[in-house]
Structure formats: C-alpha cells, structure tokens
Amino acid sequence: MEISKLFDDVTRARIRQPQPKNNWASNAGWARECIRYAVLIRLQPLDLPAPSLQQQRIYDEGEAQEKALEARLQDAGITIEARKATKFWAMPKIEAELDFIISHDGERALLEYKATGELGFNHIRKLKKLTDLIRSPHYWVRHYADQIQLYLKMFNEPRGILLFKNRNRNTFHQIDATLDDGWTDNLIEIFDNVNIYVANGRLPERTEKPLCQYCGFYKKACGDLDHGKIDLGQGTIKL
After folding, report:
1. I need a surface site. Which of 16, 131, 143, 151 has the fewest CB within 10 A?
2. How far apart, in whole angstroms, are the C-alpha atoms of residue 81 and residue 66?
3. CATH (domain of 47)
C-alpha cells in the first residue's frame, strides 16, 4: 500500500479541462491586463493545457484550507451566512463563486480567502490597502484586487475582506475592500468588449506583456512573441 500514490490517483481523477461558456469574475485581473487571454479562454479553451497533477494538488489544498477556515470562523463566533455563494449576470455574461459571506457583531462582509507560502505572505503583509495590491509587481496579487471588487458589485455588498494566511506559520493578514463603482465599471466594460470579440469569433491583437510568461496560452496562441525583451509594467485602472 502506497498512500501517496492512492492520494495522487484521487487527485488525478479530479483534473478537469476548464471550458467556460461565460466570463469568470475571478479572471477579471487577467481580462484587465490582457483582454486576449479573456477571449481565448472563451473561444479556444482546449488550447489551454489541463491542470497538471501538481496544480490540482494546489487546488485541492486550497479547498482543504477553506474547510479549515470555516471551522475556525465558527469557533471565533463569526456567522457564516453563505459558503460558495454564486452569482450570474446574463449581461455581460459574468459568473462568480465567492468563498464566504460572513457577519459578526452587526457587521457583514464578503470574504475571499487566500492561503500562501512564506515568501508570498511576506510580500502581502506589507500591503495595507486594496490599491497597494493593484500596484504589486506580482500579477496574482494584482488580480486579487480586481476579483474582490467585482464580487462586491455582483453581490451588491459595500464591504469585502481579503484574508490571507501564511500556511507555514498559521498567521493571517486582512485587507479590507469597499466598493468602487469606477473600478468595477471599468472591469464590466472590459468584459463587454470580450463578449463582442467572442460573438464575432475574433481575437484581439497580441501585445507583449510581462504577464505572458505566466499564461497557459502563450506557447500555442502567442508563441511567436519575444517575451525576453519586455520592460516590467502592468495594466492600468481608474482609481
């Protein structure tokens, strides 16, 4: 009996190729920084490699972390009003799945939970505001800010919390978010443009971005771009 092999067999069976029919709110940051990605994931999803075994392990660990957090929230006397709450906007075809809606002592908030390792957490704990996240050099940190903003708009909630956990030390860092209509209107406009491209079966022009090196599409859909000569930069947003 090899327990790790049995675990991996179960994990491997959970691997699924994403084939979204709508825009995902969790992809708002990608759409803002590279609209081509947001169109590709709709038009050519099979060009995106399926998650590897290691990636699926990470997804499974994230789910386990959320279940553990649920128990911890309840132990702290926090009411969980919803878990894995979903929302769909027919126009501009956006769907969202939120980790938690919580309340405590008269306060209510959306809660999005992110567990990370030591290095990532050490960077994030230096950030105090949502606008600090959007200016991070790390794309995944920037995208958290877009994600929580769009969730606030879609769930019609004025306040949200991004809760980060250091998996190594079991410590937490909280960043509060309040709805910014200008920010979310910009994201919605981007997804409107995505829908136009998808409806016409067309792709936006390719552009060279630092983000490209992390994109699962770039080898097949943008492989002739020279990613070695890019100055560090990031997308802009109205704040």
Report:
1. 16
2. 15
3. 3.90.320.10
Residue in this structure with the two tokens 């996240």, named with its chain if needed: 133
Q: In which residue are the tokens 């994230």 written?
A: 62
In a domain, 35, yes or no: yes
First to last CA, the chain: 56
Q: What is the domain extent for residue 57?
A: 3-229
pLDDT by 10s per residue, the chain, length 239: 899 999 999 999 999 988 899 999 999 999 999 999 999 999 999 888 889 999 999 999 999 999 999 999 999 999 999 999 999 999 899 999 999 999 999 999 999 999 999 999 999 999 999 999 999 999 999 999 999 999 999 999 999 999 999 999 999 999 999 999 999 999 999 999 999 999 999 999 888 788 888 888 877 667 655 444 333 233 333 33
Name 112's Cβ contacts closer than 8 Å, sequence gap at least 6. 98, 99, 100, 144, 147, 148, 151, 160, 161, 162, 163
